[in-house]
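Researcher: Batch entry, complex prediction.
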Amino acid sequence: MPATETRAKTKLSRQQHLDLYYYMRLNREVEETMTKLFRQNKIVGGLYSSLGQEAISVGTAYALEKRDWIAPMIRNIGALLVKGVPPRDIFTQHMAKYTSPTKGKDGTSHFGDLDHLHIISPISMLGDLIPVMTGVAMAGRYLGQKIVAMTWIGDGGSSTGVFHEGLNLAASQKAALVLILENNLWAYSTPVRRQVPLENLADRAKAYGISSYIIDGNDAVAVYTAAKDAVERARAGEGPILIEAKTFRRRGHAQHDPAEYVPAEQREFWEKRDPITLYEKFLMDEKVLDAKGKKEIEEKLAALLDKEREFAEGSPMPPPEFAAEGVYCTGPECHDLQPKWERDVKELLPPKSCVEPVWTVEGFGRGKSSSRENAPIHFGDTLQTSEQAAVEKPPERASTPTKRETKPAVKTPVKKKPVAKSAARGKAGR
Amino acid sequence: MTAITFLEAIKQALFEEMAADPRVVLIGEDVGVYGGAFKTSEGLLEKFGWERVIDTPISESAIIGAACGMSYLGLRPVAEMQFIDFIACCFNQLTNFVAKGHYLWNAPAPIVVRGPSGGGVHGGPFHSANPEMYFLHTPGLKIVYPSTPYDAKGLLKASIRDNNPVLFFEHKFLYRRIKEEIPAGDYIVPLGKAAVRREGKHLTILSYAAMMYTSLEAAEALAKEGIEVEVIDLRTLLPLDEETILQSVKKTNKCLVVHEDTKTGGIAGEIAAILAEKAFHDMDGPLMRVTSLDTPVPYAPTLEEAFLPNAKKVFTAAKELARF
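Model: Structure tokens for the complex:
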């Protein structure tokens, strides 16, 4: 099974394995707690399950550093937890409590934290966050922060116009963006084969001359390994990277949807490939986890979630008069918006910032689809070594944002990682 | 002091804000090498470099999205729409994400979206729009529409310094036609304040942008007939300066709204509602409006002239209103 192959290659520490396992379990337990709350009529709106997709949310976000930014989709609760969001925030959000991060103004995982955790709130209009995260990556580079911006999209959202606009801008700017495309085979009730005429959605990367990966989204280690690689490459200045994670949405679009349109054999196939069950078996086999350790984790989770749920249930709804507040920022007393400069500001002000306009862009449009030989794009790029000798570098390139003094740190010749054939061509394949 | 054009005022505001504050960056189509379709950003690239003057693909949603993302890290991006008509392409990004951020998740987006708007230059149906009212209905945005070089500079500076997303409309008819002596150096014109352009006692004309001049021209002609018109330049449409409007209408008791936007759903309707709510007993006549026709902006000069308001139409309407 290819999943085992990828695992064999990984070099995760014991603690990293246990972290991944813990967050996947936490992700699932948080959602199971909410399913119970939903049935008790304590969730105000909808509930969108990521059952069976926990390895993707957790494994990708775990590849990031604290300074990095994420913009999750509604189902990426695991990414929020890894980033440091306490479960109570997720409970209070769903229950529309005044103690929630949005104080009841929005629900579900629609909240963010600009100051500390670097989380940008999801929006229901899918794809919009791709250019937003491109801007985050561009600003990070401008400020000298060396951050990576990560966001997620589904098989459905990858057909939006703004997906194209965002990824194209990111590629033309060589922005440090990692886009996780969760192909869970269904966009609400429409199977992926009726949405996109491609076997692999990662092929969309070819249109932007950027690198891509295809991974088994139910294999936590494979997800983490690919994400880590992509994050390091993006940070090193290689530009945006697309990761297609093959998976399956085990529940309906939301709680109200029994998803009767899903063929029974497809569901059965994927239920046998539960990411937590698979990972647990792997950890037991590798002697990273034993029955005692598992029990300890379960007790820890139960105690935490009881406490967090009780807090949420005991919290008040927002007072009605709060509805009229907060449409506008009233000024510095409301928000004093100062960037965190990690470079000398003088570089950005005249006379140092002055340049002559560059009329031609060397190397632009020389993208070679999803290969490592992707295009050295945009102004001031360092070209591939072979090209460097041939092209004389204009002097103004020295002060441009995409300058790379060193070659990318990561050299793994990763193209498309093999994915379980059966997974890629699952029942919803074609 | 030397007289400068409306266009030059925009350029000065951008230049001065960028020179004073490294948080300010400019992003849009052809804003760098070309200096903007109307040359409003001419010379900025040479002065501030590629990192601060960013040419983008033709992707309005991506421009707004990227500007928004940049603002979350503390920058103050100015996003240019090559023609403001294209703002329709990023409607979702603006109304659903940018505008709602502060209310929903405490995320202010200090971005300015600016671009050339308005008709009268035979730009045809896709280069002449006044799309301000699509956005007036969106809580969280501010909408600025100046008419003079002094205001253009001061309001653009204020917009850049504002912590909220501001849509800044630059009427392209005014770019090179209007000149004014303005003080050198830094000053701002606060958002949300209308200006009385001409004092009068018989009736109030509320207007903005290019129609402000049409209204002043009509007021001049009306004065010769003994009708003293007070002309108010709204300058900011969101938030609207209700105080100045009400003060004037309570004095003149009659109100005519002149706007270049089309009639149905134009701001005159909103003003009519405000006056009905807050100045019902002060009104001695109906609220009247002179606006463009409820059609797309036609191309042929004869058609566009028929489409747009002009001083004669304003004069006629004002005379009719003055009879009440």
